[in-house]
Amino acid sequence: MTKRLNFAPRKLRADAQRNRKRILEVAKEAFTRFGAAASLDDIAKQAEVGPGTLYRHFPTRDALIEAVYRSEVEKMAAAERKFAETMSPVEALRTWMLLFVGHIAAKQIIAPALNSVAGGPSKLFEGSRDLVQGAIDAQVKRAIKSGDIRNDLVPCDLLRALIGEAHVASGTGWQQSARSLVDILIAGSRPVE
Predict the structure, then answer these.
(1) pTM, whole model, 2 decimals?
(2) Cβ atoms within 10 Å, residue 56
(3) What is residue 124's predicted lDDT score, i.e. its pLDDT?
(4) Residues of the chain with pLDDT under 70
(5) Using a CB cutoff of 8 Å and minimum separation of 24, what contacts does 139-144 make?
(6) For the chain, what are the domain ranges?
(7) Domain 13-59 belongs to what topology?
(8) Can 13-59 and 69-188 be said to share one CATH topology?
(9) Distances (CA, A) of 146 to 11, 95, 139, 191, 192
(10) pLDDT for res 33
(11) How many CB atoms lie within 10 A of CB 122?
């Protein structure tokens, strides 16, 4: 009888999870401020871990950059579920869309670091697209079911409008404009009486 090996990743200990989380938070700030060239040793020092701990979690710079981006997208997906549990459907949709505006801003800031990832960021963006699409679809579906939003609304249209705002008005005031656009989109999505 041969023994099967289990290669499933082990669950991290609590202290290792805290270290990983701290590294990701510090790395996001560092990549935002200094781009892809941010010092990994400085990231480890600010996260209060040794370089060995950083490299054990993230063996390459690309692995750390990818993990920072994925972590931000996962936070946005988790927020959708939290908002659904604690807010009315239309308020959850509005709040999540405002969070998405912040995600676009962070993505624009960290874009140079993402572009340094071997093969470019397109593969990384594709993987996150499903999480973002699932979150907006769930929010809109609940808002339609509650009667707060018209039933012919296409969830992706809301995202396209916000992304378009970020690309067209990419100056310093675009985020405030995008936040205002969220309210306009919600108002325009109400059922016609």
Answers:
(1) 0.73
(2) 13
(3) 64
(4) 1-12, 106, 108-127, 169-172
(5) 139/80, 139/83, 139/84, 139/89, 139/92, 139/93, 139/96, 140/93, 142/84, 142/89, 142/92, 142/93, 143/89, 143/90, 143/92, 143/93, 143/189
(6) 13-59, 69-188
(7) Arc Repressor Mutant, subunit A (1.10.10)
(8) no
(9) 39, 17, 11, 11, 15
(10) 81
(11) 11
What is residue 53's predicted lDDT score, i.e. its pLDDT?
A: 93
CA-CA distance, 51 to 49, in Å (whole number)? Answer: 7
**Alpha carbon distance 76, 178 (integer Å):** 17
User: Does 1.10.357.10 match the CATH number of domain 69-188?
Assistant: yes
Residue 193's pLDDT is what?
A: 73
Look at residue 114 in the predicted model and tell me its pLDDT. Answer: 64
